[in-house]
Design goal:
The chain has a single domain (2-202), classed as 4-Layer Sandwich (Metallo-beta-lactamase, Chain A). Helix 4 (83-87) links the parallel strand 5 and strand 6 (108-110). The chain has helices spanning 35-44, 59-62, 65-72, 83-87, 166-177, 196-202, and strands spanning 2-8, 13-19, 25-29, 48-53, 75-79, 108-110, 115-118, 122-128, 137-141, 144-148, 151-152, 155-156, 185-188, 194-195. The two termini are 31 Å apart. The protein contains 6 helices and 14 strands. With 206 residues, the protein is of the alpha/beta class. The chain is globular, with a radius of gyration of 16 Å.
């Protein structure tokens, strides 16, 4: 499986590229900015982006959607509950950064349990984990899970934005993420990777 990561934007957001070694087809998860860096990674290994997947609709995770889509033709996927954030700068909080950034509208709306197939070998399972945002999702494949801003090493996502819920986030983490084995690796939207086992034992919020 292809797996690459790049830290981008002033918010130190993690963008991931995941895909099929056989076909070189990939998904770009959370292109929050620095489209040149993302496109450079794709070009270096001759990768074809077929999807842009947003784990939620905040500006630091969708900021380069338009540039990456324009360059690659990739389809934009997001949970239905966050879809309006793509096209509304007030909803995606870009005004907090002194701008009014929008994305093209979603090409496909996701729901809990959906399977996103990439090439011949990779399938991403959509896990709806609202709390940081109404449409927050995680994406699991094999022994790894992309957790967006749901879970961080030793912490959890903010819940003080409109649409956030601390109780809902904690419930979803405990019921939908901590059910996995200790050795499952979690790749968050900010900060270093971690494991489900580490968070189960050491995360003070859990």
């Amino acid at each position: 499986m292809i797996l690459k990561g790049i830290e981008i934007s002033s918010m130190a957001e993690n963008c991931y590229i995941v895909g099929c070694e056989e076909t070189k087809e990939v998904a770009v998860i959370d292109p929050g900015g620095n489209s040149r860096g993302i496109l450079r990674l794709l070009q270096e290994d001759n990768l074809k982006a077929i999807y842009i997947i947003n784990t939620h609709g905040h500006i630091d995770h969708i900021g380069a959607n338009r540039a990456v889509k324009d360059a690659t033709g990739a389809k934009i996927l997001i949970h239905s509950a966050d879809a309006k954030m793509l096209v509304n700068s007030a909803s995606n909080f870009s005004f907090l950064m002194g701008s009014k950034v929008t994305s093209p509208a979603a090409d496909q709306l996701l729901k809990d349990g959906d399977i996103i197939k990439i090439g011949n070998t990779v399938e991403l399972e959509v896990i709806h984990t609202p709390g940081h945002s109404p449409g927050g999702i995680c994406l699991k494949t094999g022994n790894i899970i992309f957790v967006g801003d749901t879970l961080f090493q030793g912490s959890i996502g903010r819940t003080d934005f409109p649409g956030g819920s601390y109780e809902e986030l904690i419930s979803n983490i405990k019921n939908k993420l901590l059910c996995y084995d200790d050795d499952v690796v979690a790749y968050p939207g900010h900060g270093p990777s971690t494991t489900i086992g580490f968070e189960r034992k050491h995360n003070p919020f859990l």
